[in-house]
Write a structure and sequence with these properties.
binds adenosine-5'-triphosphate, binds magnesium ion, single chain, 7 helices
């Protein structure tokens, strides 16, 4: 479980996050939705120690993001809005293997894991391609593959549909749902699009750095959605 208690995050003189108390339970598919600048990315960066609380605590399976950041990062994978920020090597299969190279894993195991993920995401045909030559949708799948080979327990997707056309949007949402339902990976999907909530069990709405809704999807209503500045 990712547990956020009494979290405040201050940047310069402004509180970007205020008194956040949420729990992301294992096995669930949780969506965090909020308008531009509401604090979504700032919040989720606290889940894997990329940001540390000004006040309050964040724990992942009981481990503090402050004290146990290395362990926490192994458990929580994060896919950013722009996959280019995440691609390091120029050849696809090398890029996917990058995280594994830094661990104590045999090259045989690395090749086998990378191979499996390439097939799983139907991107085997671009294994030897140059990352810079790929489409936005393909780049995103390569970035996701690089996370999946690390076998994280939790994956956070920060607005994964924004840069994609309708077909690729549908594809990534389908894959995310499959990772949750089939592989039992706990999913946190960040979005500002109501339609993206389709597969989520739990919804957290953030507005101006505060949580204004946290509950099951069937408890959502138009009034709350409007309050958050989102289109129904
Ligand atoms: N490094 C930073 N420097 C200055 N301001 C920042 C920084 N990071 C976040 N902010 C401010 O914090 C607020 C929340 O930003 P954040 O990126 O978390 O929002 P968001 O909900 O992810 O927005 P978007 O939907 O546009 O991605 C905004 O007012 C933003 O200007
Ligand atoms: Mg953001």
């Amino acid at each position: 479980m990712i547990k956020v208690q009494n979290l405040y995050y201050k940047y310069e003189d402004k509180f970007i996050l205020e008194n956040i108390n949420i729990e992301v339970k294992e096995g669930f598919y949780t969506a965090i939705i909020g308008s531009n600048g509401s604090g979504k990315t700032t919040l989720i960066k606290h889940f894997n120690s990329l940001l540390l609380p000004t006040k309050g605590t964040v724990t992942v399976d009981g481990l503090s993001t402050k004290k146990d950041s290395l362990e926490v990062r192994k458990m929580v994978g994060m896919l950013f809005q722009n996959p280019e920020d995440q691609l390091i090597n120029s050849v696809v299969e090398e890029d996917i293997a990058f995280g594994l190279e830094n661990l104590n894993i045999s090259s045989k195991e690395i090749i086998s894991r990378v191979d499996k993920i390439l097939k799983r995401l139907y991107i085997g045909h671009i294994a030897k391609s140059n990352v810079n030559m790929l489409s936005a949708g393909q780049k995103q799948l390569v970035a996701l593959a690089g996370i999946l080979v690390m076998k994280p327990k939790y994956i956070v997707f920060d607005e994964p549909t924004t840069l994609l056309d309708p077909k690729n949007k549908k594809n990534i949402l389908r894959i995310i749902n499959q990772l949750n339902k089939k592989d039992r990976i706990t999913i946190i999907l960040v979005t500002n699009i109501i339609a993206d909530l389709r597969h989520a069990d739990n919804i957290i709405i953030i507005s101006d750095g505060k949580i204004i809704f946290n509950g099951k999807k069937n408890k959502l209503n138009k009034k709350i959605i409007k309050k958050a500045g989102l289109d129904a």
